[in-house]
Write a structure and sequence with these properties.
The protein has 643 residues and is an alpha/beta fold. It has 4 domains: 56 residues, no CATH class; 330 residues, Rossmann fold (3-Layer(aba) Sandwich), CATH 3.40.50.150; 89 residues, no CATH class; 124 residues, Transcription Regulator spoIIAA (2-Layer Sandwich), CATH 3.30.750. The chain has 20 helices and 27 strands. A hairpin with a 5-residue loop joins strand 13 and strand 14. The structure holds S-adenosylmethionine.
Length: 643
Amino acid sequence: MDKIEPNDEHATSGSIVAENVAALRALFPEAFGEGGIKFDVLKQLLGGPLDDGEERYGLSWHGKKRARQIALTPSLGTLRPCPDESVDWETTNNIVIEGDNLEVLKLLRKSYAGKVKLIYIDPPYNTGKDFVYPDDFADGVGNYLRITGQVGDDGGKITSNTESSGRFHTNWLNMMYPRLKVAKELLSEDGAIFISIDDTEIRDLKAVCDEVFGESNFVVPVIWQKRVTPENRRAFSVEHDYVLCYARSAEVFGETRRLLPLTDEARDRYRNPDKDPRGDWLSVPAIAQGGHGTKSQFYQLLTPDGRLLDPPPGCCWRYNQERMTREIADNRIWFGASGGGVPRIKKFLDETRQGITPSTLWFAEEVGANEDAKKEVSRLLDGAVVFDNPKPTGLLRRMQDITTEAGTKDIILDFFAGSGTAGHAVMAQNAADNGTRRYICVQLPEPLDPENKDQKPAADFCDKLGKPRTIAELTKERLRRAGKKIKAENKLFRGDTGFRVFKLDSSNLKPWDPRPDDLPNAVTDWIENIRPGRTEQDLLYELLLKLGLDLCVPVEVRTIAGKAVYNIGAGTLIVCLDKSITRADAEPLGLGLVQWAKQLAPAGGTQFVFRDSAFADDVAKTNLDAILRQNLPDDALAAVRSL
Ligand SMILES: C[S@@+](CC[C@H](N)C(=O)[O-])C[C@H]1O[C@@H](n2cnc3c(N)ncnc32)[C@H](O)[C@@H]1O
């Protein structure tokens, strides 16, 4: 029986460096030798001398190396389930995670890498008043518990990143860079990330995203009209924010992105002046920019009334001559009512994908403004104005329209969740189109200070709820109430308005603490290698993360030989975390497990996991292991492990 040790691959969020090296080795085996990577060979394989960095174009800042290293360091934390704070724990596929998002993203990597369709983030804009999370390289989870006041004695007081700090942009970049790097891993092949930002950090954000996602995967900068009433205070009234969009692969995104639903107004633009039997159509010019055309698009076009037309200066025809002739013969080119005009291509309503190509201008009247968002949130929270700048659900729904499908289990992730707008928008969208999209929202339990006038309404609201004074409490409460409201307003909607709550904490597995001056006790402590106070549920969900399973995978419990046994993912994983397995237990337990595994018969076999300290002695452990191996065929047994 293999034991999962705290430092091995199964006990951490996975070694990103090791995975990178393995990918490189698969591509360039000749660049690896006894001493590891042969960097000079690798350079050569990548196309000769690369530039040496000194004068390279790109973004550089103090701490960049460290920030990169922080992204590569595995998390030693875990996510502890909190069914009591959740809604519809048993059935929901949505997740709210309380914690620092970098640690959380690292922990989600194994389960969700390549699976997230849409990431939306609205990070602190770094206005000088924002709290910008200071990462700690050596002790990510300990740092988190201290910053949020869960350990230590500073009461969770957090300070903002001020312009006078001397490291204003640097601090922000150091915070953003590792998060974006890990987030990229979660995006699916056809996924995209949208990031809200304003003028303060647009330059650095664009530069850092170009580096992380690749310049060629930059899709567009969206301009979102965030206010409709002019601002009075500045030389210009700033009425927009940016939303930068990057794709995991711009090419795939271009092929798969969806059109926006056709509005009545857009529908009205289709007419049928020539009574075409194919129905209503609208027309677009039959020309394209000359610079983008091929040679075959430059020719003299013969019109049905016998004219020879050159494309206008700087342009070419949209189709080559052969295709154009075909389209004219099929009455798909419109030369105006008189037939003597310039050619235009007819686009039939019945043949379009029935949608509109999204524009880069998102107007408040279409997607909502900041003011609308404030009202959306405060209406749900008994009129309390607890967020300064939440985003409207319409803004998120526009992104979902472009990137997600109703009938899929597309995952939408927001790891700066704030008031939980992204989760609310997913539920609203699903209710509108009977969809099954899922969301994951991550929010820091950022302490709210009742002495701070800006934070007082939010702190008071938490007091009223009898909850700790943190932003994460507001996120959860908004989502609870939004789910109820959506259900009440859409009586026929049977979809998911629940969510599972998880909280970031130190791993359930104790690290080995050598204590040379107290070796006997150190060894005894280590034998029970599970941290005190941790439940079977805690261990179970840590296991899911370590083994890369979905946190909402169905879990079934049975009692076998008097012990609780969990079947996860229809037999993929069978877990018994009982604290005691004696020699006498081994046979009834082993045979019961065999029977259940045979019934479930998952493709790829079953993996069994036990609590290592549960075994009364080596004989109990060996017997149980042998019973499983002897009674299950090889292809039905994926592994037997202890924890
Ligand atoms: C601008 S707000 C997001 C607002 C959100 N879009 C909405 O509509 O309500 C940014 C949020 O990120 C949270 N945050 C900042 N640093 C974080 C971190 N390291 N991990 C998780 N959340 C963080 C802040 O507490 C804040 O609530």
